[in-house]
Amino acid sequence: MSTAPVARVLIVDDEYYFRQLLIRLVDWEAAGFEVAAEADDGTTALQIIGEQPIDLIITDIEMPNMNGLEFIGEVRKLNSAAKLIFITSYDNFSYAQQAISLGADHYLLKPVDEDAVEQALRTIRTQLTEKWEAERYINRLRIKAGDVQEPQAGDARAQKRQSSGTALISKTIAYVTAHYAEDTLSLQSTASALFVNPSYLSHAFKKETGESFVEYVTNVRLGEAMKLLSQGATGEEAPAPKIATIARQVGYKDPFYFSKCFKKRYGMTPNTVYSGSYSDT
């Protein structure tokens, strides 16, 4: 059973009846969300964000006093990592461009389509779950290293959302999880995908996790290789892939280099694991 928390949603739209329609349109609980708050303008919404954690913002663009783009610009100044859905009546390319530049996850048009909203929520829920799992991994590493104490049940500080730095590392871990099988994965390619400076990412990753980016990628790849090699050792009915194939599946073009890294990490060769001639004790 998943232990991921319910994601908190803020709906911002100057039309009261649209906010109510959206609230009733979706089975939020089934989707893993709860509508934590609603606001009819950006100023009120900013106050809400300053007072409580928000995981997803759903906002219109055309609103009085402060439009949705200006509002999200202010949100980003707060270093909020909240996910973002724009729902608007304006099929405007310039608006869409600005929305993307502000980190919009989805840009939907009114009249709102239920299926489109639910699909967007499924995607965002998956991303949030991966982020929280990565944060728990980071906390376990920090606890193991003695940087922080094991959080006590009910400790309010343990319930606070991670800093923007930790959010970046969570995104990095999620990116590596999705791309470790690609031999082109590197610090530079990851930093480019996340729109950050490689040197900054390298420093932040080491600071948060206690291991370098390269070390982390290597551990992920070799861990996956161990799983695949062990499956071959169990003699499952499907033909097991050759070691060179497994090397490629976890991001190594050169099977000899893969074997060298594997032996350094586990003290045994891939062939030893693959043949089942090792002790699991």
UniProtKB/TrEMBL annotation:
Report the principal subcellular site. cytoplasm
User: Where is the protein found, in the record's own terms?
Assistant: Cytoplasm
Keyword Kinase (UniProt): no
InterPro entries given in the database record: CheY-like_superfamily, Homeodomain-like_sf, HptR, HTH_AraC, Sig_transdc_resp-reg_receiver, Tscrpt_reg_AraC-type_HTH
| Occurrences of domain Response regulatory (ranges) | 8-125
Coiled-coil ranges (or none): none
HTH araC/xylS-type domain spans which residues?
A: 170-276
- UniProtKB keywords: Cytoplasm, DNA-binding, Phosphoprotein, Transcription, Transcription regulation, Two-component regulatory system
List modified residues, type 4-aspartylphosphate: D60
**The protein, known as:** YesN/AraC family two-component response regulator
